[in-house]
Amino acid sequence: MMAISFRGVFPILPTPFLPDESIDVASCGTMVRRMVEFGVDGVTILGVLGEANRLTDSERAEVIEACVEAAAGNVPVVVGASHSGTKASCELAKGAIVKGAGAVMVTPHAEAVPSDDKVRGHICAIADATDAPIVLQDHPGSTGVHMPLDLVLSMVAEVPTIACIKQEALPSPPRVAALKAKLDRPTPILTGLGALYGAFELAAGADGFMTGFAFPEVLAAMVEADADEAFNIHHQYLPLIVFEGQPGVAIRKEIFRRRGLIAYNTVRAPGAGLSQTAAEQLDHLLTQTFTTTDIQQRITPGTANR
Amino acid sequence: MMAISFRGVFPILPTPFLPDESIDVASCGTMVRRMVEFGVDGVTILGVLGEANRLTDSERAEVIEACVEAAAGNVPVVVGASHSGTKASCELAKGAIVKGAGAVMVTPHAEAVPSDDKVRGHICAIADATDAPIVLQDHPGSTGVHMPLDLVLSMVAEVPTIACIKQEALPSPPRVAALKAKLDRPTPILTGLGALYGAFELAAGADGFMTGFAFPEVLAAMVEADADEAFNIHHQYLPLIVFEGQPGVAIRKEIFRRRGLIAYNTVRAPGAGLSQTAAEQLDHLLTQTFTTTDIQQRITPGTANR
Amino acid sequence: MMAISFRGVFPILPTPFLPDESIDVASCGTMVRRMVEFGVDGVTILGVLGEANRLTDSERAEVIEACVEAAAGNVPVVVGASHSGTKASCELAKGAIVKGAGAVMVTPHAEAVPSDDKVRGHICAIADATDAPIVLQDHPGSTGVHMPLDLVLSMVAEVPTIACIKQEALPSPPRVAALKAKLDRPTPILTGLGALYGAFELAAGADGFMTGFAFPEVLAAMVEADADEAFNIHHQYLPLIVFEGQPGVAIRKEIFRRRGLIAYNTVRAPGAGLSQTAAEQLDHLLTQTFTTTDIQQRITPGTANR
Amino acid sequence: MMAISFRGVFPILPTPFLPDESIDVASCGTMVRRMVEFGVDGVTILGVLGEANRLTDSERAEVIEACVEAAAGNVPVVVGASHSGTKASCELAKGAIVKGAGAVMVTPHAEAVPSDDKVRGHICAIADATDAPIVLQDHPGSTGVHMPLDLVLSMVAEVPTIACIKQEALPSPPRVAALKAKLDRPTPILTGLGALYGAFELAAGADGFMTGFAFPEVLAAMVEADADEAFNIHHQYLPLIVFEGQPGVAIRKEIFRRRGLIAYNTVRAPGAGLSQTAAEQLDHLLTQTFTTTDIQQRITPGTANR
Question: Above 90 in pLDDT, residue D306?
Fold first, then answer.
């Protein structure tokens, strides 16, 4: 299995649907190939943005296969394998690896009575079930699970295959700094949250991004820049980052559509589709942000499109 | 498709696991066949007690097939088909019906922004996807969705295949009474919540039970009795009902095991297994409740085992 | 300050209101004096049942004064002093003690990011603010705070004035047993939850009850009885315990009214009042439970009213 | 009572504390007087940022009196009067008005069983209790109450004293647009959420801001500008807006302190104080945002400090 550095940008991709809400396999391929052209370090599928919680298992498999095939070994495909049951999460993880995933991303699951021991048992069992690298996602906003810092540190110490922490507990910059200071083996930290706090997280020591912002080139430029330039790039795109970060996946899917990455902005019920207000404001915002730049092409932050 | 009356007792069955947490197919068969011998009006699988949220789709299929085969047409098998995505819920429902389910049980799914319209759309879409009878489960305690009475009434009015309401919103007796008073077509109401409020729900007009209490014969006797006798039977078994109703599924699975219905009391992680205290108290409680009655046989409430 | 044993029964009392929702001071006095006649070991006011979260601070003071005066030193008055701010909780605690409370009952407060350290800091600060005995209430169902067992143990070890644990985390019997086994100094454990699991909690080692069930004489009889007799008494009154335990405070207030303890069953908005169904079922249930016994008098479980 | 236009900027002010967490009355005065000098249209106290949930009632009164005195009739003081009990909320509202508040801000309170009717009853009762203008705050993020659009519209139609909607339900721009389109009497809409979506909310029709961002001059400039200029101002300050918007009140209080508005950044327990990371990043961010501009003086967005 290919070693993955987990530094840089691993965009979280939506799951494209046709207007009837069935999987749009062709768009899976287009989207991944274009991401490779954009220079990403990997792609992440079947996360929250991927509406993973609205798919059947066979649909999950379909998406994995299409994306792995399109990645064609050029970049690793990280696959979300979270499930409310430990054994099922193990099965999803193993199934993803068999289909060519380079790593799996997992979260703890909220139980009626929160328990650090239960969280540890859940994560360790998944790690035991496969040799693949594991991205430990810490996103209380979607999971409802608040992992104390010490719990994360001890799991990283205990489980050698935890290869990356996707750090999305708020407030994120001090949490990144604390992890960097206390992790007893070097473990890459990627952040998410739509890159809302991106410049602050990088300044605190984060190694890159694993998030759904539709312009991974912007995030890649931030990772490669020095702190002041990263701040400036972040600042430049911050209205778009904020706008995209509104709840739901419809705005992101619409931008993916406008970039030519997917064919339709269809969101699966009961998720909300694009509002009229959002569509109109997005029109204006993209013009303000990119003026005449063709967003269907790779964006070069900091120069042409200022 | 066999018409189902939805009066009487439709026990919610656990999903039996072997000690390694894999599906115990043999116990699926035993459990269903014994339930038929106990005289139940149907069986319900893949609910919360069935740990449905800890199964992969293929495991779900395995459980359905084993239970439908064991039911052998003697009683209908009601299959839980709830999912956080509408389309996936439709697929689960259709898959269950194809495998021989007599009806499907569905719930709304909690969204970040609660919306009666979204709930309606979700339920109607599932109803549109199949001709099968639908049990509309209203259990805010597990779903987090609080459906106003008027929403339930209007969905029943709009969707002719809603064949039963599984009423578990608290407080349940006044809710049963309100439904009975306002439903514009006769719709059976079964209650759950482990039968904790069973006598009060029957007195308010409920038609029976769809719940996990491990002695459905007791509930059947209550349904057939007059109000005072139903109260007395409920009273007789109330310590057991209360004890069983403690959070988690471990106590119920242990009673199922002691009754010879399943081979092991295994609970899937991250669910909690049987505590030492619960095991000891259950020993004593079963003796207090049944004295010398053999609980592996059908219980006859109200006579031999008082 | 009078030492309090925290063994026996410390009923949680409602806050009586006149029909216009103002404090019914006269009923405060009646209620407390009658409780003393019923033989309780103390009374507890301004808990959840006391609608403490719907009172202004000056109304709280009014209730405390009326109840302390009526207790007249015959039994201690335990006063709820929970607040979402630590300093405010300290002030409420000190104010209660000045007014004659014998102890204060406190809970942790749910913060956006749960933290055992924050919980510890909150409780310790309140303990530092007063010399009075502290009842540490562990009721995740109302507070949303899940304290790990080790946290409770360490706070008891650290704070000598924690004089009692009000144990209401589910499942409660194994939790009581674990506390009893692991507490490094003898600390009374009272349970609540409307006494739903009362016999099981006593069997696991609990020292008594601090709960809202409207017949504290029943609970007192359980505490004094051996295990089998306690089970029998609990069993006898279990339908009433279950019925009273339905959500909201209206049923309890109505029983208090029927017992002549308070003048009106008024519940403060936005709390729900007594439903027609509940009122009718309560009529019937009281007759079934007590036949001709006068519930305005002290009940003697286990003899006259079987 | 002075009529209030509810257009422009009504900053939500923190409650200043001394290092021992007691009320810093002097800073109340300084803060309000400086806000008047900054040209705000009113000030709002005892909201979430004001740690209102960590104050006793008498401390609330102290804060109101100090702020009203400092406002000296130059601008109206809007006072938060939310409470979990309806009658207590009425008392808080009346008490605030008596002390000179120009309006009260109220929210619905989350009940165990959500109910539009209960929300309506709560808000209407408060409106009935006073003649003062009411700001209806719709902030599900802090209240847990999701009011359907129709409920808000009908309350505005029914209650003539609802003088302003503080619109903070997400996503906010389409919600502002929908309110503007459907309100049957002109009702000002102010938005909050730290101004994160400020330019988008103004573009959708909002009338101004009622939020805690520590530079109300920036928001005032946005309100007075045309859409493109408002976008540009918002864009200019967006890193600061994002940074300030991290959970908790510590960063805001620290900026208030650096601006000379309050003497200490003390946060009441169990709230979190300023992290080392946040303090360092704030240093850098203020320099990047304001270069040599003196933030203790009134800021003039769009010119000197670009």
Answer: no
